[in-house]
Design brief:
2 domains, Rossmann fold, globular, 42% helix, binds pyridoxal-5'-phosphate, 16% strand, four-stranded parallel sheet, alpha/beta
Length: 411
């Protein structure tokens, strides 16, 4: 099967053109779907209907563009990382999502989905968060929209991302520390889904990555595609021809937002970088595409880290945002068709790439984004002289306590 069989011809049916083409019935090839309890089917249908209306409405598009420009700080810069490139033997460009308001790409998705929630008439926004970036972005957008906000966050993540917990509270959000399960992102999503199921009419679940039941992977990718769209035109303005585009993959939203525009450009390699934790020879990692197999988690069928008995495996990553046993269904499809490839780097490799980026470029990347940098470094080592574009998904201020403790603050 090829990518063309799965994606089909580009549909230019909506006002915003091909960025908003949708997966048929929520499937990306064999992956995706809507594996949810009966009572969530109607709310999901309502979200899909309203999202479709929004995406084909010129007013929505221009309001979103204005909000991204005047509140969220878009377009973000594309920085030529010359010293890093010289060290690695490559031409390296960084797409600076770290420069957005609240410090990561998560704000793009939130700025779009809050408008969908408002059109639906939601009275209360709920969200999960791992690294806290999605929680902070959601809390900020809710403050601006005058909507109450509850954010679920695993206890482990509350501990390692304290600054973000405080930021959410400053924006008026109710932060609920989740003590069940693995106490990281997976448990936070479980609790948010539970909350949503108890009041799906008044509550809008503002999901933070390209995961979950249809229509979320499509909605999140559609809104996040602004990253790739801007990058493509910034490269063209400078007459730079990319050989490789690299992004880290947790649930997969910054990566799919970056990749989507480049999928038709078959001469450009797309590489996702998963969290190798303590190494693939241990079970302390979150390498979902690289070592998982298909299964259902949080409402969709995708690659999944699971035991022989089908139980979800516990994960480990130094970066809270990549510490997740699942991945968005579109990535599973891109991997299966071979259009994108996925590699992993360890905690230690990510930390050393973070340090290099600080010392050579004066940029402190998030630990998640440092995985993309370490992946790019590896790619440059294997084949020198390439032009590599890295999605620098966020800034590392939130990670200072982990960095100050030598990167070992998770027991
Ligand atoms: C800065 C940053 N990058 C990447 C991620 C991973 O998420 P995704 O794979 O959805 O982009 C996160 C998640 O919290 C994050 O905060």
């Amino acid at each position: 099967m090829t990518i063309d069989d799965l994606i089909g011809p580009v549909q230019a049916s909506s006002h915003l053109g091909d960025y908003f083409e949708e997966p048929i019935d929520g499937w990306f090839g064999e992956f995706g779907g809507q594996f949810v309890p009966e009572l969530l089917i109607e709310p999901l249908k309502r979200i899909e209907k309203v999202a479709r209306e929004c995406f084909s409405d010129p007013t929505f598009a221009s309001e979103l563009e204005t909000e991204l420009h005047t509140w969220a700080g878009r377009p973000t810069a594309l920085t030529h990382a010359e010293r890093l490139g010289k060290r690695w033997g490559a031409d390296v460009w960084l797409k600076r999502e770290d420069l957005t308001h609240t410090g990561a790409h998560k704000i793009n998705n939130v700025a779009g989905q809050i408008k969908i929630a408002q059109r639906i008439g939601a009275r209360h926004i709920i969200a999960e968060t791992g690294a806290g970036q999605h929680g902070v972005a959601t809390a900020a957008a809710c403050a601006r929209a005058g909507l109450p906000c509850t954010v679920y966050m695993g206890e482990v993540d509350v501990e390692r991302q304290q600054p973000n917990v405080h930021r959410m509270k400053l924006f008026g959000a109710d932060v609920v520390a989740v003590s069940s399960g693995d106490r990281t992102l997976r448990s936070a999503i479980n609790e948010t889904l539970r909350h949503w199921a108890s009041d799906p009419v008044n509550t809008y679940y503002l999901l933070g990555s390209a995961v979950g039941p249809h229509p979320y992977p499509w909605i999140v990718r559609t809104i996040q595609s602004v990253i790739g769209r801007e990058t493509k035109s910034q490269l063209a303005e400078r007459s730079v021809a990319a050989d490789v585009v690299v992004a880290c993959v947790g649930g997969g939203s910054n990566a799919i937002g970056m990749f989507h525009q480049f999928v038709p450009d078959k001469n450009i390699r797309l590489v996702g970088v998963e969290a190798g934790g303590l190494g693939l020879d241990t079970d302390q990692h979150a390498v979902t595409i690289g070592t998982g197999r298909p299964g259902v988690l949080h409402g969709s069928l995708s690659m999944l880290l699971q035991t022989d008995a089908g139980q979800i495996r516990e994960t480990h990553s130094i970066s809270a945002g990549l510490d997740y046993p699942g991945v968005g269904p579109e990535h599973s499809m891109l991997s299966q068709t071979g259009r994108a490839s996925y590699m992993s780097v360890t905690d230690a490799e990510a930390l050393s790439a973070l340090k290099e980026c600080c010392e050579l470029e004066g940029i402190l990347p998030a630990l998640e984004s440092a995985h993309a940098l370490a992946g790019a470094r590896e790619i440059a080592r294997e084949q020198p002289g390439q032009t590599i574009v890295v999605c620098l998904s966020g800034r590392g201020d939130k990670d200072l306590s982990t960095l100050m403790s030598g990167g070992t603050d998770r027991e």
